[in-house]
């Protein structure tokens, strides 16, 4: 089984970006820990980060030929992107939405997600553990 991990805009700045909200670990740190967990779970993972909505849409469109599911932190596009939602629907892939912070505890504009309604599930507020919980949940679901 192969799972794609997508990090949306500004997640390349992890470690430097508002560390009181997003923590001290860099994107490379996060990806190595995801890779280690994938090894334990016996699945392969691929990684993609982009600050561009169009590139994320393109990656989702191409993903079905190689991947069985996606763990995605869409960043700010969570709250704005009908295009990402439509790409998920047309891909037919199972997607888990993850957020480092608890978006529901923050500004009102972060409470709306265009992705949640087409996701298998949402993990929000566990720091970078949100990615690990999301990956575990997705792999369990796809293994059933
Ligand atoms: C985020 C939450 C979003 O509201 C924000 O725009 C991000 C990161 C999170 O991981 O907590 O870029 O997705």
Helix/strand-derived category reads: alpha/beta
Under CATH, the homologous superfamily reads Dehydroquinase, class II
CATH domain class name: Alpha Beta
Please count the beta strands (DSSP E, at least 2 residues each).
5
Instruction: Tell me the fraction of residues in β-strands, as a range.
Output: 15-25%
Task: Return the CATH topology.
Answer: Rossmann fold
Oligomeric state of this protein: single chain
User: Using only CA atoms, what is the Rg?
Assistant: 14 Å
Number of helices: 5
Order of helices and strands: EHHEHEHEEH
Please tell me the CATH architecture by its name: 3-Layer(aba) Sandwich
Relative helix content: 25-40%
Please describe the biggest sheet, giving its number of strands, its sense, and whether it closes into a barrel.
Answer: 5 strands, parallel
* Outline: globular
Q: Bound compounds, please?
A: 1,3,4-trihydroxy-5-OXO-cyclohexanecarboxylic acid
Q: Concise description?
A:
This protein is an alpha/beta fold and 144 residues long. It has helices spanning 19-22, 27-41, 53-63, 82-91, 129-143, and strands at 2-7, 44-49, 69-73, 94-99, 121-124.
């Amino acid at each position: 089984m192969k799972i794609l991990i997508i990090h949306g805009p500004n997640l390349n700045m992890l470690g430097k970006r508002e560390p009181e909200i997003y923590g001290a670990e860099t994107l490379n740190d996060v990806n190595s820990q995801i890779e280690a967990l994938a090894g334990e779970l016996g699945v392969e993972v691929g990684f993609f980060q982009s600050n561009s909505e169009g590139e994320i849409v393109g990656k989702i469109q191409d993903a079905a030929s190689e991947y069985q599911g996606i763990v995605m932190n869409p960043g700010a596009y969570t709250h704005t992107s009908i295009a990402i939602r439509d790409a998920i629907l047309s891909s037919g892939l199972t997607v888990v939405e993850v957020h480092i912070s608890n978006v529901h505890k923050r500004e009102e504009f972060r409470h709306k997600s265009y992705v949640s309604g087409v996701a298998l599930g949402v993990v929000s507020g566990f720091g970078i553990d949100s990615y690990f919980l999301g990956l575990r949940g997705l792999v369990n679901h796809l293994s059933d």
